[in-house]
Amino acid sequence: MAEAALKAAGPEEELTDGFNLIIDALKLNGIKNIYAVPGIPITDFLRMSQAAGLRVLSFRHEQNAGYAASIAGWLTKQPGVCVTVSAPGFLNGLTALAHATTNCFPMIMISGSSEREVVDLQQGDYEEMDQLAVAKTMCKAAYRVLHAQDIGIGIARAIRSAVSGRPGGVYLDLPAKLFGQVMGAEAGKKSLVKVIDAAPAQIPGADAIKRALDVIKGAKKPLIILGKGAAYAQADEAIKDFVEKSGIPFLPMSMAKGLLPDTHPQCAGAARSLVLKDSDVVIMMGARLNWLLSHGKGKNWGDAPKKFVQLDIEPKEMDSNVEIVAPVVGDMGSCVNAMLSAMGNNFPKGNADWMATVAKKRDENVAKMAPKLMNNNVPMDYHGALGVIKQVIKERPDTILVNEGANTLDLARGIIDIYKPRKRIDVGTWGIMGIGMGYSVAAAVETGHKVLAVEGDSAFGFSGMETETIARYKLPVCIVIFNNDGIYRGTDTNAASNDPATTVFVKGARYDKMMEGFGGVGVNATSPDELRQAINAALDSGKPTLINAVIDPAAGSESGRIGNLNPQSALKKK
Ligand code: ADP
Ligand code: MG
After folding, report:
1. Which of 11-20, 90-99, 422-431 has the lowest mean pLDDT?
2. What is the pLDDT of residues 89-104, one digit of tens each?
3. Of the chain's two ends, which shows fewer C-beta atoms within 10 Å, N or C?
4. Residue 142 Cα to ligand 1 middle (Å)
5. Do 349 and 280 reside in the same domain of the chain?
6. Is the same domain home to 439 and 293?
7. One domain for residues 280 and 416
8. Which of 359, 390, 412 is the last residue of a domain?
């Protein structure tokens, strides 16, 4: 087909093809990195992309390439691009695409696919699957391009769909035949589209701003909740001004930590229970009242009546769980700037007594925790190991912290202070396991900062093979595995057979040897002092490093802090 077109065009006309048009369209729109796993029909596409100056990060599994693209989107406000092969590769990447959509991260997954004619008649093509139909239910938008001259429009639609309004995942289906389709170079160039103002400002109405400020003015115990949508917006200065000018305590959701430092005098992070219960007006900024906030009701929120103000780009988010008395719909930068100008200079500065009550509780809780974090126990417990990491991040606040696990996640989230915006990336809205290595790769590639991945041993297992990817690209990533021999704990036993219990792993496993095997640095750390030395050495050198932090197998609780969500049989045999 491609050859026939080549002949038909004649020798004098300059030609282009699907491969080149996709690459040109991506470059024209400022895409710099592609996260991918090569294979039929995209092997040559990735080679050509690399040759054309795009950076291609070649992974071992599509799910990890997809997670990398998803967090690249959140970190940069540009869609992260993941490229996969057809059916199985597509399905492997789909988890990450759905994850991006759920978390409001802009991402485009491009998958090669089999021939439409054969797929639609279900005649059993190589890796046959109606990928577009499958993807549609899992993402914000899904498109297929059949003709080379539509590639420019297809990429433009994908970019705009991913980043405008509430960001999300977009699927782009490219049948194998499209890559080789030939057309005149001149016409091809003209068919490309540079997307103008891909994520237009969405300005809230003046009445909405006034309504919100009136509610805030009437509050006695106001609370601001900052979410990862606020961190995504990169309106850091305006948000800081708003928080400080209002004098209201703020509670950061986990990926909003650092938007203002966790050590800020108004931070209520360590007084979470108190502020949720006792606040009377809650200002949601780029955060949803989903399960992570007990849907805005129930015992965690106390009995006192509450009013909710919500700033969000998505109108449908309003009243999703409880009544929002003052919805402010728009992009965070526009919303906060409008609030600031309407506040003027005489806006009442919060309630000093309430702020003092919150600060007292917070300081008590921090003081209670402090001695635990300084313990030098061997084998290590979570607190001893996390005390070390808390100090490392304090000394190196530009480091990006990646975090997943059960206890490793819950405890690290509370213990490790974050000082700058978008420096903590984690399991997100689903509490998903497996983001670790994909996130680490993208964080290093997109930001140029050093990355510290704090991983439960179980969580690490979902993406552990990408240790090789990190070593191959020589990325400045230090992985610390909290190795307690299992899921939640390493102490479960099975009395019924010789098989190990379902939640335990090989005792005394040496994950550090994996990194050594790929030419990176592996360290087995058995005490907080050894752990500190190893992390500092890794972050100084920037060499790919994996530290096996040996944690007491009896440390840790079932399901971490969300054991209440894990049904247990009352009838089970002991
Ligand atoms: P968290 O898990 O931190 O609470 P969520 O993912 O639940 O955060 O909520 C993020 C919210 O931010 C979503 O409702 C989304 O619509 C919103 N959002 C995303 N980008 C923007 C933006 N640029 N401006 C305003 N809101 C945004
Ligand atoms: Mg474990």
Report:
1. 11-20
2. 999 999 999 999 999 9
3. C
4. 22
5. yes
6. no
7. no
8. 359
Q: Is residue 396 part of a domain?
A: yes
CB of 460 closer than 6 angstroms to any ligand 1 atom: no
Q: Per residue in 108-132, pLDDT tens?
A: 999 999 999 999 999 999 999 999 9
CA pair distance 287, 107, nearest whole angstrom: 19
Model's pTM, two decimal places? 0.97
My answer on whether 417 and 342 are in the same domain is: no
Instruction: Find the 404 Cα to ligand 1 centroid distance in Å.
Output: 20
| Parallel, antiparallel or unpaired: strands 80-84 and 33-36 | parallel
Q: How far apart are CA 216 and CA 342, in angstroms?
A: 13
Confidence band of 556 (pLDDT split at 50, 70, 90): confident
**325-331 contacts at long range (C-beta below 8 A, 24 or more positions apart):** 325/211, 325/215, 326/208, 326/211, 326/212, 326/214, 326/215, 327/208, 328/204, 328/208, 328/209, 328/212, 329/202, 329/204, 329/208, 330/201, 330/202, 330/203, 330/204, 331/199, 331/201, 331/202, 331/233
Q: How confident is the model at residue 574 (pLDDT cuts 50, 70, 90)?
A: low
Write down the pLDDT at residue 10.
Answer: 61
Q: Does 568 fall in a domain?
A: no
In a shared domain, residues 122 and 145: yes
Ligand 1 binding pocket includes 504 (Cβ within 6 Å): no
Whose tokens are 């703020």? That residue is 250
> Among residues 169, 190, 172, 159, which one has the least CA distance to residue 95?
169
State the CATH number of the domain containing residue 557. 3.40.50.970
The closest of 284, 29, 56 to 158, measured between CA atoms, is 29
Q: Which amino acid is at 537?
A: A
- The residue whose C-alpha atom lies closest to atom 27 belonging to ligand 1 is 229
How remote is the CA of residue 466 from the centroid of ligand 1, in Å?
29
Does residue 284 line the site of ligand 1, with CB under 6 A?
Answer: no
Pairwise CA distance, residues 173 & 109, whole Å: 8
Q: Are residues 280 and 353 in the same domain?
A: yes
- Residue 141 is encoded by which pair of tokens? 């938008």
Type and span of the H or E element at 277:
helix 272-278
- C-alpha distances (whole Å) from 97 to each of 82, 263, 453, 558 are 9, 34, 22, 29
What distance in Å separates the CA atoms of residue 346 and residue 351, rounded to the nearest whole number?
14
CATH number at residue 251: 3.40.50.1220
Q: Is residue 530 part of a domain?
A: yes
502: nearest Cα among 558, 436, 437? 558
Cβ–ligand 1 distance for 332 under 6 Å, the answer: yes
Is the same domain home to 382 and 344?
A: no
For 310, the domain range is 206-359
Work out the widest C-alpha separation in the chain, in whole angstroms: 82
Domain boundary among 312, 329, 359: 359
Distance CA 373, CA 138 (A): 42
- Tell me, yes or no, whether 571 lies in a domain: no
Radius of gyration of the chain from Cα atoms?
A: 25
The bound ligand whose nearest atom lies closest to the alpha carbon of 481 is 2
Same-domain pairing of 185 and 287: no
| Count of domains for the chain | 3
Q: How buried is residue 573: exposed, middle or buried, by Cβ count under 10 Å (0-12/13-18/19+)?
A: exposed
466 lines ligand 1 (CB under 6 A): no
How many distinct helices (H) and strands (E) make up the chain?
Answer: 23, 19
